[in-house]
Amino acid sequence: MTVEFRLLGEVEAAVDGVPVALGFAQLRCLLAVLLVEANHVVSADQLLDRAWRPHRLPRHPRDAVHQRIALVRKALATVPDVAVTTHPAGYRLAVDPHLVDLHRFRALVEQTRRHDDTAVAPFAQALGLWRGDPLAGVTDTAWIASVRTTLLQQRHAVELDLTDIRLRRGQHAALLAELSDRVERHPLDERLAGQFLLALYRSGRQADALARYEQLRRDLADELGVHPSPPLRQLYQQILHAAPELAVPASRATPVPRQLPAPPRLFTGRAAELARLDSLLDDQPETGGAVVISAIGGTGGIGKTWLALHWAHTRLDRFPDGQLHVDLRGFDPAGQPVPLVTAVRGFLDGLGVDPATIPVDPDAQVRLYRSLVAGKRMVIVLDNARDTAHVSPLLPGSPTCTVLVTSRRHLGGLVTTHGAHCVDLDVIPEHEARDLLTRHLGHDRVAAEPKAVDELVACCAGLPLALGIVAARATRHPGFPLAVLADELRERSGRLDALDPGDPQATLRAVLSWSHHALSDAAGIAFGLLSLAPGPDIGLPAAAGLLAQPSGATRALLNELENACLVQQPTPGRYRMHDLVRIYAAECATRRHDPAERDAALRRVLDFYVHLAHAADRRLDSSRPVVRLEARAPGAEPHEPPDLAAAMAWFETEHANLVATQRAALDHGWHLEVWRLAWVSTTFHARRGHREDDLSAWQAAVYAAAHLPGLAAARAHRYLGRAQGELDRHEDASRHLRQALALAERRRDTAEQALAHHQLARAWERREDHRRALEHATRALELCRALGRPAWEANALNGVGWHASRLGDHDTARAHCQAALALHRRHHNTSGEADTLDSLGYIDHHTGHHDRAVDHYRQALTLFRRLGNTYESAATLDRLGHPYAALGRHEQARAVWREAAELYEAHGRDSDAAQVRQRLETLDDRGSR
């Protein structure tokens, strides 16, 4: 597990490259102070001085420091080998300094200056730790500003030292662009100016060097009223007279290959991948061992070549002996991949080999190439490789070389036979996509149309090529509103047409076709059909049902698609397509299959989801009425979950797919499947607090039920009424529940009438009309007793008891709830038992029996957690805090209220969360007095 704390840029902590959530700016500021002073005690006064602005000090400063430190400690709880400890004099962050980029930077610089101040690599490695201005993203206090200034000065000093070394090594040409930028930022720095003058002169630009000196002389006089320093004046005279001592050392004058294409001008993001490549380079041995190969993979347009070129160009100092590059054209539709002899000949030309001396035999050419790069510090970029055999002959034998290989396929052979390190690329996140568009189009244009930019980013779905095409089209028409382009991209059916930059070879459709055409026929069919699967991803069993193939054959097809980077496998056994790849795959399916064939495939996967969701729902609540299902479609091979935990896990995994599947069934007019999917999902929705999804499911089911016979409509209206009530849409809830009751009465169905009265009781309770709620609960109990269904009677008894308790009739309430508890336990109804224990806890608390209330609430909480019912757990935790507080057990009250608030927030129950947070503040205020 790799842990890193970053101060030389945005302040953050990361574990295995994944950022740790650190909260708001002031927590980051506190963490920054502790990291700067790592392993040293920092007093509370120092923390207040460094992390708060003077005019924003809290009312209780030391309490505020203690609370914020607790939040920092919580944020770092999952980070191994790191601890924030409390001491009499303050607080101390115990951490290995090597994990903090600031301390690693200083150690590298100090060690290099002490032992070998001519070494390039350590200085370059130290500077490579920087990711922008230091201590970014924190509260900007005076202390932070002071430390930031000091760090920037230290970085500048290292850059100057490294430049001196590189100039001594004859790397003036490679330094020119970098020095030009730095001189613009530090126009009066005379040491930097001298380095730039020398690089200009050595690059054959004597006149430019002299002109630059004159400009500097005038600037110094105007700005500071001084003349250039004696060393700079002496350098000027040497340049003026072309002094021999300024010449490049003879040993460094040998030409080196510079074959890298220009880097992407507006590259952004990819911090984790760049860090991965850096770590591979840092771990590369100086001698011995294997060549470090990074096989950069990903679908067409994901940015493989951009990443490779950007990384190589920004690390040129690590490769003083040059760079070799070849585009192998492994997926070029216009012709064959670049032959080996062509690639090697290009390398030999770059290495300065006299054409007359190049051997004719291809193997001899490869041996000559390997001999020439042996022992050299070079980077070799093998771009767009078709397969392992395509690149293996081009791998050097020297361990001092670094090779970057890009391919649309996963080159497993490189990993197996050459120890390659894979760097697989995914889409870029939303903030990086916005940054990329901003850098192309300018801040003002992006800021002027934020909604249009949001749509453009969403439609491109993080694919760099798509973003580049959008930016190119917008740039071509600077006066056009971005909303016009967003309108073109909005419709999925025409999105690939809109992503056309005007170059037939650069359209997204063309780029994706190159990978598609390289597939086997069976994989090509699977690629198209997989686009029909509803939802963001698909598991192997569902894919087997969709394709009407056995699991083994389906896995082989998915592996081929994954190797071609047309699908991803983010977790074992689950596959997904990028949104734009899916649109292209759907076009392929439309060309290859008629509507009946496509509908049959969708029916198969829908059948799979309905059958398995029904089985999982039965695990969650076996007391629900059984839904009759047809026999499974051929090819569907669902493995039913063996227990409640497995069923809940299956629903968690497939939830988004079930929502999308119901939407697809609704679009196709498959009414029975729409209703069934609402039915089999509702228990899971209730236990996990998916209120909006439950509402949408039953709205669709009500529409579908109008086309179905029997009790489908009554049940749909009842569940929709319940869903409306959970979202406090009281009028809508009452209307649907009354309609459910009327339909049940019309059919003289006693069971449905009882359930409708039960839900009406809950609806009136939400409107604070507890008397009407009790009337409906009492009627539900009468009907349940007439049905002779003990489990339903127990639920109804608890309902009467709960509503009676809300009216203050605690004796009636307790009697009904105790009777309900006995029935639930007798019939092993865990969910009903938990509900009833919660009711008894409420009754006990409101009759002054706080110890008994705590016991009942804790029993209920144990059962809710066993059921995976986080929705009801939140309410029980909320209520449990009250008897704890009444008993003076404030720490326990705080603990359960904090957990309740977190669950409420996770469910989107913001008003409930706010009330709990207010109680916590009141409790804290009471404790501080």
Automatic annotation (TrEMBL):
Protein family membership: Belongs to the AfsR/DnrI/RedD regulatory family.
Record domain OmpR/PhoB-type: where: 17-93
Species name: Amycolatopsis heterodermiae
Protein name stated in the entry: BTAD domain-containing putative transcriptional regulator
Residue ranges that the Swiss-Prot or TrEMBL entry lists as coiled coil: 727-761
Spans of repeat TPR: 834-867
CDD domains, sorted: BTAD
Pfam families: BTAD, TPR_12
Limits of the Bacterial transcriptional activator domain: 100-240
SUPFAM superfamilies found in the cross-reference section: C-terminal effector domain of the bipartite response regulators, P-loop containing nucleoside triphosphate hydrolases, TPR-like
Keywords: Coiled coil, DNA-binding, TPR repeat, Transcription, Transcription regulation
